[in-house]
Structures are given as structure tokens and as C-alpha cells.
Amino acid sequence: MRPPTKLWHRLRAFVHHRRAQLTLSLRVTIAALISLVLAQWLQLRLPLWAVLTALIVTQMSVGRSLRATIDYFGGTLGGALYGGAIAVLLPHASEIGLLAVLALAVTPLAFIAAINPRFSTAPVTAIIVLLVPLMTHASPLASALDRVIEVAVGGATGLAVSFLLSPSYSHRLIATEAARTLDQMAWALGQLLAGLTQGLDVDALHHIQDRIGRALAELNAMGREAEHERSVRLAEGPDTGPLLRTLLRLRHDLVMIGRAAATPLPETLRSRLSSPLQAIAVALADDLRTSGGALKAGRPPPSLDDVATALAAYDAELAAVRRDGLTRTLSSDAAECFFALGFAFEQMHSNLKDLHRCVVEWSGPSRDVGREKARA
């Protein structure tokens, strides 16, 4: 393959892999340009705030942009009203008076923002309303009004660009991210069960669990955005709650398995249970991966027969081990981990049934209402 052809293939692969990020950068750039043009056309006093607002509210998905716009505009409106009232009602011609008024404006708003981060822009807006008149010689009320208009222009621009330019909907993205999380769980399960026979480093165990925890945190945030989209009928589809709760329960199963895997099996049990454990690891991991693929593609879930067969074989061998009296010599800690492992397998089997029900719900047609309205 010639160098130009090789470079072209690499570029195509990069664009395909980073399509979402490249699309977001394009949307952000266009939103910034349009907001600046609108701010100059409207002769706003500080076009900077319109551009910055457009940058902030233009997010990866329409749901996230909608949430960011509502939060940012709500915080700005509250800060502008409170800051403008303080500036009008309390004189602050002297430096000491200005410091006192600034403290009175910022302290309660900062306290509210600490309680509810959705109002994090309120203290910033109050500061702008108080200090900008000193530089522009405008009245506090005009400064507050300008701030609200600037944010409204930037927010509306960012939201419109997110909605119209290659829109990405959180509800649709959840299936893709959930499939990726299930892949991580499948990989983690293999690593954890290998620890029963080979030993597992505690730091490695924490690293595995942390990766899945971060993925679930991102999914939960995306779920809130998807419900925003559903509430305003930008998207239609199943409720995201059951799927996210099932993924969380599967993560708890991995935590239980991880705790058991921290103590390797004694040699007497390792030789008897190594093969059944390997079969369980393969069956559970395959089901997690294929369920994720089905969820992403909108297909029905796979059969759980292989998982049931592997668990039945493990239970049969476990019963034989107990009949042979091999569990009597276990220490209390080892016995606790050993029997907790069987409970974790049964819980995971039950939660996989719930996962399959969720995949069935998500296998139906899911529509992006906003996009279909735009096409109409």
C-alpha cells in the first residue's frame, strides 16, 4: 500500500472512531460564530457572553444541551435579578460600599450554588451585573438586562445548533454506552474469576471496579438527559430506569465476585472447580457481550441456556465437593468467600434475566421525534 493510500485509510479510521467528537467540535464552532453574528447584529454591549454561553450549552447530545441551557439560563436569570436589585437598592459609590454590596450579592448566591450546582452561574452573573457598570457606565438594571439577553442569545443559538446540525440524542446513545459497559463487565468478570485460581492483585481489583463505576456514572448522567428528551417529546422509547438499575445490580454482582476472588481457592478445591469456574466465566461473559450487542443493534437478547448449563454443572461439582468433605478444612474467611461466590452467581443469573427483559423492551423501534419533525 502506497503512503498516500495508507494515510487516507488512517484518516478515515480516525474520523470514524472520533465521529462524535468531531461533530461536537463542528457544532461548537458554528454555534460560536452564529452567536457572535447575532450579538453584533443586535448590538449587544458584551457579545463575549453570548459566545461563551453558546460554547457552554452546545453539548454532545440534544438532551445534554437542553439541560445545560435550562440550568445556565435559570442561574443567569436568578443572578441578574438578585444582583440588579442589590445594586439598585444599596448605594455603593465608595470602595468600601462596593465591597460590602459585592459580599452581600455573592454570599447567598454562592451558598445556593453549593447546595444546587444548577445555579452555579448565579454568583458570576451577580458579579457581572455589579461590576460591568463601573467599566461601561451603564445602569445596574441595563447591565442585568444585557446579561439576560446575551445569555438568551447564546443559549438559544447553542440549543438550535445542537438540534439542527447532526443531532445526537441521549436516548439513542444510552444503548451504545450500555453495550460498551457490558463489554467492560464481561472482561472484568474473566479477570475476577481468574483470581480464584491464580490470585488477584488488590490494586488490579480496584482498578477493574473503578472503570465500571465511572462508566455507570456516565450512563446515569446520560439517563437524566434522555428523560429530559422524553419529557419534551424530542425522543420516544422505553424508560431508561430499568436498564440502568439492572446494570447497577450487575455491577454489585461483580463486587461480590471480586471480594470472593481476593482469596484464591485452596489447592484441593482448585483442581475440582477450575473447569466449572472456567465454563461459568465463558458463559457469563459471552452473555454480557451478546446482550450488549443485541441492545446496541435493537435485536432480541440471546438465550440463557449456556449460562444455566454452566451454573448447573458448577452446582453439581460443588455438591460433590461438599459430599467429599473438602469444604470442612476451609478457614472461616475462605468458607465465607467460597459460599458467597455461589450466591453471587445466582444473583447474576437472576439479573441477567432482567437484562434480557430490558433488551427486549429496547429491541422495538426507538424514534427521535425531533429529527422526524425536522424531516416532515
Q: Report the sheet with the most strands, covering strand number, pairing sense and barrel closure.
A: none
State the end-to-end distance. Answer: 45 Å
Summarize the helix and strand pattern as letters: HHHHHHHHHHHHHH
- Chain-averaged pLDDT: 80
Rg from alpha-carbon coordinates: 28 Å
Number of strands: 0
Low-confidence stretches: 366-376
Roughly what fraction of the amino acids lie in strands?
Answer: under 5%
Using the 3D structure, state the CATH architecture of the largest domain: Up-down Bundle
Helix content: over 70%
Q: Counting H and I runs of at least 4 residues, what is the number of helices?
A: 14
Overall 3D shape: elongated
At CATH level 3, the topology of the largest domain is Methane Monooxygenase Hydroxylase, Chain G, domain 1
Q: What class do helices, strands and sheet pairing give?
A: mainly alpha
How many discrete structural domains? 2
